[in-house]
Amino acid sequence: MTGPLSIISAIAQGRKAAEAIDRYLGGRGDISETLAQPEEEVVLKDRLVVMRRQEMTHLKPWERQDNFDQVEKGLSDAQIAAEASRCLECDARNFEVVVNTASCKECGYCAEVCQMEVFGPAAAFNARGYRPMEIKSSNWCVGCFKCFFSCPDFAIDVREKPASGRS
Ligand code: SF4
Ligand code: SF4
Questions:
Q1: What is the CATH number that goes with domain 94-161?
Q2: How remote is the CA of residue 131 from the centroid of ligand 2, in Å?
Q3: From 97, 99, 128, mutation site for ligand 2 pocket: most ligand atoms within 8 A of C-beta
C-alpha cells in the first residue's frame, strides 16, 4: 500500500491490519499489549564529548590527472576503530523545529519523511488558503534534517538547542 518503507513502518502497517481483522471478527480492534514495563526517565547529567568524523585521505586534484587511480584512499585501521566507537549523541542532543506557517503550502512532505511524527496539520488555514503543518513536539526530533531538505517552500528550520544543565 505504501511502497518501500522501513521495517518499523512495515510493523506499524501489520498492526493496523491486525486491528482491522480484530474489528472484523467482532473485537474492539485493541491489540495493545505490554511487552516491557515502562522505565524511569534517564537524565543525562554530563554531555558526552563530541568526536569528529575521521578524515579520509584523498588524492590531490593534480594527482588524479592522466590516471584511474583510486581517489578515496580509505581509512586506516586506527581510524576505523575510532569511527566505530564514535558516539553521535543521537539521543543526547535537543533540537527545535520551527515551521513558517505563512509559507507552508500543505504539501505534506515534512510529515511524510519525519519518522518521529513531529509534524501535524494545524487547526486553522493560513492567509494563502492552505492548512499548514505545525510542530506537535520538538522534543521528538532527532535532528536528521530530512524535513529541512524536503520542504519545497523553505518553511522549516531545525536548530540544535544548547544543552541545558550540561557542560
Ligand atoms: S529533523 Fe528529522 S526528526 Fe526532526 S522534525 Fe525533521 S524529519 Fe523529523
Ligand atoms: S514540506 Fe514545507 S510546505 Fe510542505 S507541508 Fe511541510 S512545511 Fe509545509
A1: 3.30.70.20
A2: 10
A3: 99
95 closest CA partner among 139, 137, 51: 139
- Residue 150 exposed, middle or buried by CB count within 10 Å (0-12, 13-18, 19+): middle
Which three cell numbers mark 19?
A: 486491528
- For the chain, how big is the Rg over CA atoms in Å? 23
Q: Name the closest ligand to CA 155.
A: 2
- The residue to mutate among 103, 110, 118, having the most atoms of ligand 2 within 8 angstroms of its beta carbon, is 110
* Other beta carbons within 10 Å of 135: 19
User: pLDDT tens, position by position, for the chain (167 residues)?
Assistant: 677 778 888 889 999 999 999 999 999 999 988 888 888 887 766 656 667 889 999 999 999 999 999 999 999 999 999 999 887 666 677 899 999 999 999 999 999 999 999 999 999 999 999 999 999 999 999 888 999 999 999 999 999 887 654 43
Reported in sequence order, the residue ranges of 3-161 that DSSP labels E, i.e. its strands, are 94-99, 119-121, 133-135, 156-161
* Ligand 2-lining residues (CB < 6 angstroms): 99, 104-110, 132-133, 150-151, 153, 155-156
